[in-house]
Each structure stands twice: as C-alpha cells, then as structure tokens.
Design goal:
631 residues; 5-stranded mixed beta sheet; 24% helix; alpha+beta; 8-stranded mixed beta sheet
Length: 631
C-alpha cells in the first residue's frame, strides 16, 4: 500500500546516533534482554541475566495518554517516560487489530502477511468470512461427527517461533490473533483474540427476557440471541442453545429458572448445577456440555441477573471453552493452562472477552460492562504477575484488550468533567504498568505499547449505496435493501464494498461474475472512485469524510493478493463505513447516516497517519519515529 511504502522507507532511514536502522535498533534493544548467550535450539531452563517484558494495551491512544499524564492521572507511565521514553508508535494501514498485531508478530506489513482487516470476501460467492483465521465448526453425518478445526491465514513467521527454536523461554498471554495458538517447546501460551466461543462464533450472548419489546421483538441480534419468555408461575423451563448439531439445529441444554419475585431472587439450574442470584448479581461459571453423534463439546457459561421483580432480564455470557476440554486449541501446556484460567475466580476463554455486542443490543448495561472490563483486566494482571515470578521465562508477552473495548463504548463520554469511564480504564492500565515495573530487576527491559489509536464514530457512509449513486453498483430490485451482497446485479456492477473501508472491483477472471476487464479499464474505475471519494462531502455537516484512498491489491505479494481489496478507504475522524457496509449491505436512501449504536469510537478504517498507538520503555530510544513494524 502507498501508506505502507512510505512507512517502510521511513523505517530504513539511518539514525543520527549510529549506523543501525530504526528497526535494527529496536530489535537489538529488546534482544539484549534475552540472554544473548542462549545456544541455538537449547532447552530453556532458568533465565540467566536480564529479561524482557512486553505488555500490550489494545487501542490506547497516545493523545489521551499525554492528556492524563499531564493531569497526573497516569503516574506510572509518567515514571516510565522519565526513566526511558514514551512516544507515538506508527500503526498499520488500516489501523485495526488483525492487521496491526499480525505486523507485530511478523515484522511485515499487510502486503506480506496477508491480513488486510477483520473480514475477507470470497470472490466466488461474494460472501464475507473471517480474515485472520478459518474456523470450521463440527460437521455431522450419518456415520458420526467431524471435530471442529481452526487454521491460521497469516503468512510469515512469528518472532516467538524463532525465539523458541533458540531455546528462549517465553510466556504468551492473550496475544491477539495469534490463533490457533503456537505450541512452544520452551514456553507457555494462553490464546487471546481469535478464540471463538462454543457456538464457534466470535462471541454470542443469550438474553432471557419477558420484555416482548426487547431487541424490537427479534430473536436474533448481531452477536447474540434473545429468548422471549412468558412466565406464568414461579418456575420456567427453557433451554440454553449451544452450537449447531445435526441438520443444523442447535444443540441445547435444559435450563430451569425458579423465580422468587417478592425478594428479587432467582435460582438457576443447569445440568445438575444450581446457584441463587439476587438482582444485580453475577453467577460463578456453570459447566455445560453438549453431545451429538459421539462428539462431546464442553463449555462454561456465566449468568447475570438484572431484574426479576417486574420484567425478567437474565443475561448469559457467550458459552466459553472449558479449558480442561477445549473444543479447539486454547493454549499449552494443558496442566498450566487449566490452572492459569482458574485465576481470579475463572477468566474468560473467548477471545472477544468484553461483550460489546450485548451493550449495543441493550442486553448488558454499560455500567455492568465497565465493571466486567475492569474485573477482567484485574484478573489478567494477576496472572501476568504470577508469570513474571517464573524463573524460566526470558520473554513475557501479555496483551490487555479491555482498553480497546472500553474506547469503543465510552468514547462519547470523554467530554465529561471526570473524563468518563474510559479514563477509569486508562488509570487501571497505569496501575498494571506500575505493578509490572515493580517486578523488574536491574537490567530487565520493559516495553509497553498499543497497536493503534482511536477516534469518534458519529457519522457513517453506506459505501455500496454511495457507489450506486455513481452508477458503479446496481441492485436487482430498486428500492429493496441488499444484505450480504445478495440481490446485486453483477452484470452491471463494477465495484462493491465489504469489511471496513474495503472496496473491490468486480474484475473479470477473478470474481465469479466479474464485469470489469483487468488493466487500463480497471485502473480507470479505481482512479475515478478514489477522486470522487476524496471530493465527497457530508451534506449534513459539510465535512469531508474521507482522508485518503490507498491502493492495496496491486502492492500485495502474489501469495496473499487473493485476500486483498483493491482500495482501502481511510476515513476522517468522526466517520466510518456503516454497519451494513461491513457485511456487504446496501440500504436504500441516502448514503450518509448517524451512527445509532453505543459503539461510538472506532479506528478500523481510519488513516494510519492519524491513528498511531504508543510505546513506552525503560530503555533509551535513539530515534523519535518508531513504528509497530519495527518490533
């Protein structure tokens, strides 16, 4: 990509204080903490000499860090800057987690590692799919069942595999999109973002409610299911749905709810386990098992009772893998993994640990969501500190994602006098940094970083609807909404959008129903789309929603080019593609709309130059312009 080319050139500049490139300096600085005398392929035993600790906080914005350091609210990061440095860290294009953390892992930009965003499209069917990895749910046939599978789609070698071959003892906790998790001969791994739930989705909650109007009366919402109940007595017999089984029907577990409405309590019974909750209380983890045609799937779920005196509102978390019997790889070695997950009363195992979908669906109050974020951060910090006491570890990698999820939900509250809930999450981050820093010994290297920054998300562009207004996109039935790119007249359509800011040309010989000839005709359309987007203004605000439009496909290496979009839109702060566009939708009407969801902060399709992360360390930095690719 053009933006990446500029970043690569910058990364090759020589630093003023020596003959190392910026990339070489950072690698050497971190490498000096890794006991340089470790022999190749040696078995890690006890870390001799200094160690390295890398702590990531997803989505932390350097502008907010500077603001709250100045106000005295982040004293530990301020201290780290005083002893070493703190500065912005250039992200990737686009600046979103699958792309950025893959660059962190491989040292390559998207054109090489092949991760261009959260979603990819199938050029044969035009349907969306998860880009960083492929999850295949269980398959059921007359002769039995085939177990689920997970395969990484990332190209390039992750640095932890190279270090493991050299005998470096590594502890990896929740590193995003390192999924399936690596099996390290000299390390311990807990999988992070990318681990699905037991329905084999990114994250899928359940809300049991007697409110007929909940979720507009729908049974399904984005990221969850709504079970509408009509209680006529004090006992409700229902089911908790798990993964799909034979004939694509949901496997289910009997769930009994005993209501004690006068005192505001409920007793939950699930497969022989019982717990009584009062309104406002969260349960312990309930084990739950599903079985079909010889395949057994073990999970666990947690409940939160919001109300029972009037309307019934019971939230069930996404069903998580049971760490002792995970349906897909979750980490290793197994005995350590089970003990690690039991930390802090039991940590979530699903990668998307903070349920933003339930907040958007009004199934999870924002104050409860905030407490869940803070509680999970505390639990993961407890586990990290325990790992730092392990004498066999040379390199510890740990990533916290609650900072990103909180920014998505609470960005609108930044204007509050107290900084809103997001400030509380940043202060929790700072406390973790302080606790980790106090465990370091002389010579140990500490690196704290984030993968990208953040912006407000107030207005959105229906990209396919806009393409239609320029006659590059055509629907089969005028006046009918398009979903999942179904109902598109591909014979007339020249361009379409799916994912976050990704635009594809409907190319002959590549797309199954392509209409645009490769070469000059394609390039002419791409240039026209770019120019029209850069000229575009939001009629409601007068603002230009698009900051830049980058070529992607032509710059990608051949091995990953089939996954790449042709163009990547980089939106200005305050703007993003619409929710409908992400999944190949094209609503009728005007191209612009207000963002209606609680999810009010974003970065996924922002411009690399406006969305850096940050990096801080107790080391000295010889160059003031580091990039995530350098690490």
């Amino acid at each position: 990509m053009q933006a990446m080319e500029a970043g690569e050139k910058s990364g090759q500049d020589r630093m003023s204080n020596g003959n190392h490139t910026r990339r070489e300096f950072l690698q050497l600085s971190i490498g000096c903490a890794l006991a340089s005398t470790i022999p190749v392929r040696a078995r890690a035993k006890r870390a001799a000499g200094p160690r390295c600790v890398v702590v990531g906080f997803d989505g932390v914005d350097p502008r907010l860090v500077e603001k709250w350091i100045s106000s005295g609210d982040l004293p530990n990061l301020a201290g780290l800057r005083k002893s070493g440095f703190l500065c912005p860290l250039a992200s990737t294009s686009p600046p979103n987690s699958p792309v950025a953390w893959s660059t962190f892992a491989t040292g390559e930009d998207p054109s090489a590692h092949g991760g261009f965003g959260f979603l990819k499209r199938d050029p044969a069917s035009y349907l969306p799919g998860i880009a960083p990895y492929t999850i295949t749910p269980p398959r059921f046939g007359p002769q039995g069942a085939r177990e689920p599978r997970a395969v990484s789609n990332r190209s390039g070698e992750a640095f932890w595999n190279s270090l493991d071959e050299r005998g470096v003892g590594i502890s990896m906790l929740y590193v995003p999109y390192a999924y399936p998790p690596p099996v390290l001969s000299n390390g311990r791994v807990l999988a992070g973002l990318g681990t699905p739930d037991l329905r084999f989705t990114n994250s899928s909650f359940t809300l049991f409610t007697s409110d007929k109007d909940a979720a507009g009366g729908s049974r399904r919402v984005a990221g969850g299911r709504i079970v509408h109940l009509s209680p006529s007595g004090s006992k409700i017999e229902t089911t908790l749905d798990g993964p799909r089984g034979p004939d694509k029907k949901y496997l289910s577990a009997p769930l009994i709810l005993e209501l004690r409405r006068p005192v505001g309590k409920m007793t939950i019974s699930l497969q022989g386990h019982r717990e009584t909750l009062a309104e406002g209380q969260r349960s312990k983890w309930f084990p739950v098992r599903f079985e079909a045609r010889g395949l057994k799937l073990a999970g666990r779920v947690r409940f939160h009772l919001f109300s029972v005196r009037k309307e019934l509102q019971l939230y069930a978390s996404p069903i998580q893998f049971d760490p002792s019997e995970p349906a897909l790889p979750f980490g290793s070695p197994k005995q350590w993994m089970v003990k690690a997950v039991d930390t802090h009363g039991g940590l979530p195992t699903v990668g998307w640990a903070h349920d933003t979908s339930a907040v958007n669906a009004e199934a999870l109050p924002r104050d409860v969501f905030l407490n869940e974020v803070l509680d999970t951060m505390e639990g993961r910090a407890e586990l990290l500190l325990r790992e730092l006491a392990n004498p066999d570890t040379h390199l510890t990698l740990s990533v916290f994602t609650g900072t990103d999820r909180a920014a998505h939900i609470f960005y609108r509250q930044l204007g509050q006098e107290d900084g809103g809930p997001l400030k509380r999450v940043y202060m929790a981050m700072d406390k973790i940094v302080g606790k980790v820093a106090r465990t370091t010994k002389p010579g140990d290297k500490l690196v704290v970083l984030s993968d990208h920054g953040f912006h407000s998300f107030d207005r959105m562009l229906h990209v396919n609807t806009w393409l239609e207004s320029r006659e590059w996109f055509h629907r089969m039935k005028p006046g009918k909404n398009v979903k999942f790119l179904r109902g598109v007249d591909w014979g007339k359509t020249m361009a379409y959008s799916m994912g976050n800011g990704q635009v594809y040309i409907n190319q002959l010989g590549r797309e199954s129903r392509g209409s645009v000839t490769p070469g000059a005709p394609k390039k002419t359309i791409m240039e026209s789309i770019r120019n029209r987007l850069l000229e575009l203004k939001d009629p409601s605000t007068g603002a230009r929603p698009v900051k830049a439009v980058y070529d992607v496909y032509d710059h990608a290496k051949r091995g990953v080019r089939d996954r790449a979009p042709d163009l990547q839109i980089a939106f200005a702060p305050g703007y993003r593609n619409s929710w409908e566009t992400s999944l190949g939708g094209a609503p009728t009407g005007e191209p612009f709309a207000d963002n209606p969801k609680h999810w009010c902060g974003d970065h996924a399709a922002s411009d690399i130059h406006e969305t850096p992360g940050f990096i801080a360390s107790n080391m000295s930095l010889l160059h003031d312009d580091p990039g995530l690719r350098d690490l």
